[in-house]
């Protein structure tokens, strides 16, 4: 027997209409690539997104067609989020930090019919345009005065095109399982693969994100999105903000420490989300400007994901900002939230040193995501916080496969997705990432977590960044090599660093060698590019070998 409730589809267009109706005058502030600060509100974004939908219709875009963006976080990108998906087309957010060959591959693979781009990327678009056979129009996201002088076919001006459209538009109703947006993984191994979200998966993920025990976003929030809108839908925040009518602050390409700090100050940001690398830039700005007191900013929470939160980052946000750090773990394939770290009532009054250990875990399960860890034979491991194995996840916002079947069928027989991460889960349901399966160091049949060694190194005041990789060893198969970027003007020695590590990690986890380097390579999403490091040090002779 079916229930007698209305069968209304969960559609992204409902979010923007809700925000425009109930929070019309809540501000959306953008720092544009043009350099200026732009202000609009949810009503303005709604009108713009209806104009986007009308413009797409005029360009002959049909339901299911892919529409590409190469863009920073801004109100124009936000209007595309709603206008493209709301009209039934698929918003394909392309990561502009990828190599040009990868961008070329992705846009051709997705067969984008229109490409919207920020003027920052005009030279890149001009370079790629001859190869982008499916793209029928290139739309520069700017006004007439800032139009780039590039030679691409059918170049249009966003503001002009949209101003000419009606703000009347009736959002179509369709199956909530229809594709809404497309995001390619950054392809640290092989070609990037497309993750295709649906309206239903997006709305369920959004509902989950608002709960007090997750990100707890409400209309009282001023949310600054440092995480780019081209990376896993900016962790879903553009949708979450509309669902509750939060104020949004969109920093555009201006992600240096000073710009981020000033925007936090000027717009009274209460919650900001980003990967650890951007927070390192913010800390560097504070180190250079000791007269600044971040406590006066009123930032209440900082969301961090994409890479492990180190103790140093956690403690700086707590002590210098008076802010709570909310860590999340996830991937492009998980929309991206898989687990979120929040304390439980039982943690009240717990010894601060014990509490830090809990806070540094990636987080607890949220409703909607089933977790399991398994051993090499696929047997489920206990949730004792000690046993570690391959992490699998299942749920209504977890990918069931990749766009156009790339990579074949990926789920196990119970419908779980293999994350490629290795983790423990403790009796309270807190997941702790030991490593990515391919980064773990296999020493004499035992595993060393590169994350734990890196975090121990990062807690030394002279260490700006570090990476640990496994280097082949005649006796142990692999042993850890620690690469360190020193903070400018500091001079910690390898011996001093080893002593520091010795007090924090097991003796057999200690690196066999410490090397100082000027910089470490990163992926397009700001993660350490360990494949490159492993290649670079493949034939490296450890002193212990
Ligand atoms: P990519 O395209 O580089 O895979 P993703 O954002 O999808 O980009 O990366 C997901 C991976 O990032 C996860 O599988 C995990 O290894 C890592 N990751 C995400 N969040 C965290 C976290 N809080 N701590 C440690 N690692 C994380």
Summed up:
This protein has 545 residues and is α/β, with parallel strands linked by helices. Helices cover 28% and strands 24% of the residues. β23 (463-473) and β24 (477-486) form a beta hairpin.
Sum up the structure in keywords.
545 residues; alpha/beta; Rossmann fold; Luciferase, domain 3; GMP Synthetase, Chain A, domain 3; 7-stranded mixed beta sheet; 16 helices; 28% helix; globular; binds adenosine-5'-diphosphate
Topology (elements, then pairings):
Elements: H1 13-22, E1 27-31, E2 37-41, H2 42-58, E3 66-70, H3 75-86, E4 90-93, H4 100-110, E5 114-117, H5 122-128, E6 137-140, E7 155-157, H6 158-163, E8 179-184, E9 194-198, H7 199-210, E10 222-225, H8 232-235, H9 237-244, E11 247-250, H10 257-266, E12 271-274, H11 276-288, E13 301-304, H12 311-321, E14 324-330, E15 337-340, H13 352-359, E16 363-365, E17 370-374, E18 389-394, E19 417-425, E20 430-436, E21 441-443, E22 446-448, H14 450-458, E23 463-473, E24 477-486, H15 494-502, E25 513-516, H16 530-536
Parallel strand pairs: 1-11, 3-4, 3-5, 4-8, 5-6, 6-7, 10-11, 10-12, 12-13, 13-14, 24-25
Antiparallel strand pairs: 1-2, 8-9, 14-15, 15-16, 16-20, 17-18, 18-19, 19-20, 21-22, 23-24
Helix pairs in contact: 1-2, 1-3, 1-9, 2-3, 7-9, 10-11
The protein binds adenosine-5'-diphosphate.
